[in-house]
Amino acid sequence: MDKIFFIGIIIGMISRLIMLNLDEKQYPTHPNILTSQIVLAFVASSLGALLIPALVSRSYTSITFLSLAAEQFRQVRSNRRDTLQELEATQLVPRGNSFIEEIARTYEIRNYMCIVTSFITVSCFYVISNETNINDNSAIIISTIVGLVLAFFLRKTLSRQCIADVGEVSIVDISFVDETILKVGNLQGITNIGLKSDRERYLKDGIGIEIRPKNNSYTNAGILSYPGQRQAICYNLYSRLGVLRENNEPAFTPIPRKDPVTQAIYIAFIPMERDERKVIEAVKSCPILDSARGKNLALKNLKIEGKESK
Question: HSE (CB half, 13 Å, CA atoms) of 266?
């Protein structure tokens, strides 16, 4: 029993550790968050591993620990949300409320994943030990394999789609119309840049980005046009490549705009390093927010040009 209890904890923590790399890619954050996530993973895994032995010994009051854990993890979500919102004022490019809520929700869900994997690992051991003639060592090996398979299955299930799955990203030219009106690709009227020095910086260091809905799908267009999703893309660019601006230079804040005809999104961005390949990768890696997934049932069978899909 002692062996499977500790193995359940280890499997639960492994399920969280294999998600940390994904979290870092999708939700860039601060280094000290790593420690807190490992500690929370240990707590969650311990609760999941302890539940089956408690039920076997008829200690039904132990169920209350799950409700306390759920409340604690909800509090972690709330604290994470409050922390990110407090930091918004210090960001050169804000995350936006939708992205903040997505990050906070993700941190809560990952803890439940630890509970589930450790619980299933220990449950599998007890079922095999009590219902078959397999010895304990073999039962431990089998339950460990089951726990690891479940951990990787949950990782795949909880992995979010990225912009690369719904949009085609390309680099387009930046120019000015009527001297001061910023134009990106085929879309003009992004914003008005009054100072000549600012316009020169855009022309010299700026990169124009076009994000077209994949397959000319209205469903994909609905995701890209969601304001929170557009802001998340801008923050993803900033978090990975930096932005060449100061607090007192609002002209260089990336403003995503939609072309009402093609439904494409256009952004003028000035990264710290002018590398078009990295810019495209940064846009493609931005996770799709749950709040951006509109149903658009009336439009799902239509192409952007208005024709029915075949």
Answer: 23
